[in-house]
Structures are given as C-alpha cells and as structure tokens.
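Open question from group meeting: does this chain pack into something compact, or does most of it stay loose? Before anyone orders reagents, we agreed to write out a predicted structure and look at it together. Recording both the input and the output here so the notebook holds the full record.
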Amino acid sequence: MDNTDIESSNELTDNELTEELVVVASFNYRQDADLAMTFLNANGIEVFESGDDLGGWNPGLGFASRTRLLVHKSNAEKAIALLDDVKNPE
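Structure tokens returned:
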C-alpha cells in the first residue's frame, strides 16, 4: 500500500503549522506534567511536552531540566486559567 493513499484526519492546517508554541507550565516530575497534559487535552487544548528524564528511567533529571508543557499561543490564556483553577480552587 502506498502511503500517499492514506488520508489522515489529523492533518495540520497551515495555521497550526506556523503558530507559535508557548510554555504554560513546568514541573519537576514528568508524572505531574503528564497529569496536567491529560487534563488540558480533556478540555480541548492540544499540548506538547518538552523535557528529558531518559524516558522516565531517571526522574532525578527533572530537577535539572524541568518538564515543560507548551500550547499554541492562541490557547495559552485558557490553558493557564484551567491549570490555575486546579492549583487554587475557590
């Protein structure tokens, strides 16, 4: 089968390809970042993770290079507000 015959529903638009990503949170532990990432995804925000703990084999590396969550700039305010609501419930 030729890969050009496969249509993907996950194709990125030109805007998504060029829109700037911004950091909305950083975590010492990848597990905490993964929970926040899942929460943001559940609220309709596409999230990207950046960090290196050797794929979870060396969590101590998180202290040297924290795991960061990045979102498209257009979603940054919403993402920050959602994460703030979780950290500081009223």
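Observations to bring back to the group:
Confidence is low (pLDDT under 50) at residues 5-9.
Residues 20-87 form a domain with the Alpha-Beta Plaits fold (CATH 3.30.70).
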